Every structure is written in C-alpha cells, then in structure tokens.
Amino acid sequence: MRNFIIKRIIMSIGILFCVTLIIYTLIRCLPSSYVESMAMQLSSAPGAKSYDEWLAQLNASYGLDQPILVGYVGWLGDFFQGKFGDSWKWTMPVMDKFRSVIGLSFVMGAISLVLQLIIAIPLGIIAATKQYSKADYAITAGALVGISLPTFFFATLLKLAFAVKLGWFDTHGLVGRNYAQLDAMGQLLDKAHHLVLPIATLTIISIGSLMRYTRTNMLEVLNADYIRTARAKGLSERKVIYHHAFRNTLIPLVTIVGGSLPGLFSGALITETLFSIPGIGFTSYQSMIVGDIPFTMFYLTFIAILILTGNLISDILYAVVDPRVRLA
Fold first, then answer.
1. Are 307 and 133 in contact (CB under 8 A)?
2. What share of the chain is helix, strand, coil (3-state, %, to 5)?
3. Which of 18, 94, 119, 173 has the lowest CB atom count within 10 Å?
4. pLDDT in the model for residue 311
5. Which of 69-73, 187-191, 289-293 bottoms out in mean pLDDT, i.e. has the lowest?
6. Distance CA 67, CA 58 (A)
7. Rounded distance, CA 127 to CA 137, Å?
8. Is 44 buried (19+), middle (13-18) or exposed (0-12) by CB count in 10 A?
9. Strand, coil or helix: what is 170?
10. What region does 91 belong to: left with phi over 0, alpha with psi -120 to 50, or beta?
C-alpha cells in the first residue's frame, strides 16, 4: 500500500505540472485581460500616458511581457513558496479572498452531499429490490430526469416556481434587505433561507446518477451465488438485503463518495453564479471574465489538485473496504 501511494503521488505531481503549464498557456493566450481593461481606463484620464505605454508598464509589472515558458517557471517558483500574488479583480491577496469565500461553498457542498446519500442510496435499494415494479419505474424515471436536466434550466425552474410565483424565496443573493437589522440567530436563519434553492439544485441534479449506480450494483449483488445461498438457508429477506447484499454494494459506493470529498472545496460555479451566492465558484467566474490571471491560476490549480487527490482517495478506499483487492 505504501509503495502504491508513493507511486501515485509521484504520478500526480507529474500530471499537475503538465496541467498547470497548459492552464497558464491558455490564460496567457486569452484575447483580453484585466490588464488591457485597466490600461484603457488609465489612458482615458486627462493628460495620461497613451494606452500602449500603460499596457507595456502593466505587463512589465505583472511579468506578462516575458515568454510563456519563462513566465510559467516564475509563477511555479512563487507557487511552491506559497506566493499566489494579489487578485486584480478583488484588489487583495489571492489567499485572503479564497479564505473568505471557501467556507460558504464547503457548507453548501457538504449539505448537498449528505442529502444525496440520504435520498439516493435508499431509493436505489428500493428500485433494485422491487425490480420492474411501479416503484422501480418511478425511481428510474426520476433519476433520468435528474441526470438529463441541465443545472441552469433546473435552477431557473426552481426560481420561477418558488421565488417568482410563490414568493417563498429570493431569486438571488445570500442575505435579505433587512439583514443588518437582525440579531445573530436571525442573520444565520436569513442566510440559511437563501441557501435552500441553491442546495436543492445541487442535490436534485446529482442524486440521479448516484441512484442509478446504487440500483445497478445492488442488482448485481442480488444475483450473486452467495445471496441465493443465504435465501436457501432460510434467512429473512430483510437480513439478506441489508446485512449481506447492502454491505457489498457499499464497496463501490464508498469509492465514489471518497472521490467526491475533495469536490466539497471546489464550489459549484454554475449554481453559485445563477443564484449570485458569493462562494468560490461565483468568485472564480467573476475573476475569469475580467482576465484576473493570479486568482484564476490559483483556482484552476486548486481544482486540479482536488481531482488528483480525489482519484487517489478512491483507489485507497477501494483497497481498504474490499479485502479481496491487493495493491502491489
């Protein structure tokens, strides 16, 4: 196991180098950036230097006048020293802005993940144990709907139904108009009220695939020889399903859940943007559209690290929960 982990970490580091180089190259090749916008703004002031002079000065100050490979090596050196620079969009250190928004995204992701597990796994088991029944068809149809609906479309439907028509929630934002006049508990409840629709969106669009996965694995286990043997011994159907079959169904599910844990820190860019929730996803989107290279590079590198970490966790958990798997 130790040799496997070391090997995977070395491979992940190599992949990370390649990914960050590609990201840096693509960002440097963007048709517009915050630097150009700032140069245009500064050059429009009375008696100011020309646009080209401001552009050259700003590019030199941010190291954008260097070749891509040289600039990447410089960025990489700063990255390993923990120097992520200042965000052009938010005019503050990248890490300070990151710390201020990551907590909200983590809370949304964690609540959504717990709800997904609570809803999807029992429904998947019911669909498998009652195969070809009305319950199975209803659950399968619901799962397919959840998988098929795009996030932006489903979020719009929720806002139309519960915010516009019924008026139960606000269409966007994290706090209401009277937030400043509320006490501490009232402010907490106000934020929770504004997070209902975003969390519902994240949960519903994600449970479909987990439901289908649970159903498929449960059906495979229920058709195994040892399940037929357990039934032949006279064990109750409940004990066969929840004691023998479900425990083996958990093996692939644990790897999926383990791989999704790093995703709790990545944010939900589309959902947060649609509801104007100031999490890491919405913040990164705002940074990208203005060409904020320091924050965008940090965020995309952070996502790459999360994905590589999630894959490593999945592989390790599979060997831990399934004794038949041996890693050499």
1. no
2. 75, 0, 25
3. 18
4. 82
5. 289-293
6. 15
7. 8
8. exposed
9. coil
10. left
pLDDT above 60: residue 85: yes
- Residues 54 and 43: beta-carbon distance below 8 Å: yes
Segment 271-327, tens digit of pLDDT: 888 898 988 989 988 888 877 888 888 999 988 888 888 888 877 777 776 666 655
Domain ranges, residue 194: 94-321
Q: Which of 259, 275, 295 lies closest to 104, judged by CA?
A: 275
Instruction: Give the C-alpha distances (Å, rounded to integers) separating 44 from 50, 54, 64, 186, 289.
Output: 8, 11, 22, 46, 22
Q: Does 187 fall in a domain?
A: yes
Range scoring the smallest mean pLDDT among 132-136, 252-256, 296-300, 307-311: 252-256
d(CA 188, CA 171): 18
186 assigned to some structural domain: yes
Cα separation values, 66 from 40, 56, 71, 147, Å: 21, 11, 6, 45
Amino acid occupying residue 302? F
Q: Evaluate if residue 78 carries a pLDDT over 60.
A: yes
Amino acid at 47: G
How many structural domains are present in the chain? 1
In a domain, 212, yes or no: yes
d(CA 231, CA 325): 27
pLDDT of residue 322: 65
Instruction: Report yes or no on 240 lying in a domain.
Output: yes
pTM reported for the whole predicted model: 0.81
Phi (first) and psi of residue 233, to 5 degrees:
-75, -5
Q: How far apart are CA 231 and CA 44, in angstroms?
A: 82
* Tokens 């080209």, located at residue: 52
* CATH (domain of 161): 1.10.3720.10
Assess whether pLDDT exceeds 80 at residue 219: yes
93: phi then psi, degrees, rounded to nearest 5: -55, 140
